[in-house]
Amino acid sequence: MEEIIRIQKPMVFDESIAHSEIHAHQPFAHSTFQNNDEIYIVVQHQDFCLLPSKSSLHIHGKITKDDGVAAVTVTKLINMAVCHLFEEVRYELNGVVIDRNKNVGITSTMKSYVSLSPGQQYSLENTGWLNGDNELTDAAGNFDVVLPLNYVLGFAEDYCRVVVNAKHELILTRSNTDLNAVIQTSITENFKITLNKIEWLLPYIKLADKPKIQLLNYIAKDPAIFMSFCSWETYVYPMLPSTTRHIWSIKTSTQLEKPIYVVLGFQTARRNEPLRNASVFDHCRIRDVKLFLNSQCYPYGNMNLDLYNNQYAILYDMYVRFQMTYYNKEAEPLLSKREFINQAPLIAIDCSKQNETLKTGPVDIRLEFDSSIAFPPHTSAYCMILHDRIVEYNSISGTVKKLV
User: Fold this and answer.
1) Of 50, 81, 292, 375, which has the highest C-beta tally within 10 A?
2) Tens digits of per-residue pLDDT, 150-160?
3) Is residue 402 domain-resident?
């Protein structure tokens, strides 16, 4: 109530930023964009304030028949197809890897399903995220997308401050096959995806005089600057045995890399299968899932899912709660309950609240899951672990250390 009577409160205009402009950085001149190639984009301008969190990848290409000319007729690009064209994305600061995303297509798709909201649907098409019957290409097969870096790397999503006086590198590794980026109605058509342009659109920030002097005075002492963010790691179990119960020992993490969220998904005969959509997940008649961090179990009770009898309210509730817990905001799920079970029945497990026994020593991460029927042949499991990471850098000496 006090705020409504403060008529004497002065107006404050934030003029700390004098100018902001987006520069396009291309890969090295000799770079090629073929399968298995590494594409390096380096920013050497170390005396500027750069804002990687608002940067994007601009990718232009074309899908044709294997002659490189004729338009495809039974082949089209799937949702997040551009991400499926890359096997790995790495971000380096002064030559040190800060963050990386392996299995870019699967990881970015899983993260987007749980993070995006319906209010973003009109802007999503420009990023390569397809809604309904939309297509990414024109009649000739050309596609042109601007993919925000925060769809690909946790660093870009969480660390929203400028980076001063540092060398930036973005390294993209092309996948060894483009089969996961398309869906075909017939395998008789051979296709070819050609990337014509890849550039990193990076905002340059110019400060007003007063904040610029304050910033320069601060970094002149070469203090340690800490960057905290959540990193995404995806582990793959390529072929589950034909059983109804499976135990998956994923990894042993360090104390400071304990997961705060785990997202589990399944796909049956979708990897490198052009007749199946690799951006869609299968429920595999999952009945119960348990995540173990040493001896502590998440969730505490049994899920008792029965997807054929419409008993998956708990699963959808876990999906909705991801945004509430992870982003600390009111949930705005991208998918309706029916869309969720048909397109992306992901199991989002909140393990951010941990007792004292997990605060010392290493942590063994293990998943146990049951299904109503044996897993079908060629079923893969994907486990995306979201965990904290802290990086320290000194803007004058240029040293970079990963603390977590």
Assistant:
1) 81
2) 999 999 999 99
3) no
Collapse the DSSP code of 219 into the 3-class scheme (helix H, G, I; strand E, B; otherwise coil) and give the result.
Answer: helix
Question: What value does the mean pLDDT take over residues 179-186?
Answer: 93
Q: Read off the pLDDT band of 404 (50, 70, 90).
A: low
- Residue in 36, 30, 38 with CA at minimum distance from that of residue 172: 38
Domain count for the chain = 2
Residue of 79, 67, 197 lying closest to 142 (CA atoms): 197
DSSP helix/strand/coil, 37: coil
Residue in 358, 368, 365 with CA at minimum distance from that of residue 303: 368
Q: Which domain holds residue 212?
A: 18-226
State how far the Cα of 99 lies from the Cα of 166, in Å rounded to an integer: 15
Question: Is residue 10 reached through a cis peptide bond, with omega within 30 degrees of 0 on the bond before it?
Answer: no
CATH of the domain at 239: 2.60.120
pLDDT at 359 over 70: no
Same domain for 48 and 180?
yes
* Total-model pTM: 0.92
Write the pLDDT tens digit of every residue in 250-270. Answer: 988 776 677 899 999 999 999
d(CA 228, CA 403): 10
Quick check: 114 and 346 in contact, CB under 8 A?
A: yes
Contact call for residues 285 and 308 (beta carbons, < 8 A): yes
Is 305 found in the same domain as 163?
Answer: no
Short-list 400, 376, 402, 372, CA closest to 387: 402
395 is a domain residue: no
Residue pointed to by tokens 């240029």:
398
Write down which residue in 226, 253, 282 finishes a domain.
Answer: 226
Q: Is residue 355 predicted with pLDDT exceeding 80?
A: no
What is d(CA 40, CA 385) in angstroms, rounded to the nearest whole number?
27
**Among 100, 51, 103, which Cα is nearest to 80's?**
103
Co-location of 211 and 266 in the same domain: no
Sign of CA dihedral 46, 51, 53, 59: negative
Are 76 and 182 contacting, i.e. CB atoms less than 8 angstroms apart? yes
Q: Is 398 left (phi over 0), alpha (psi -120 to 50) or beta?
A: left
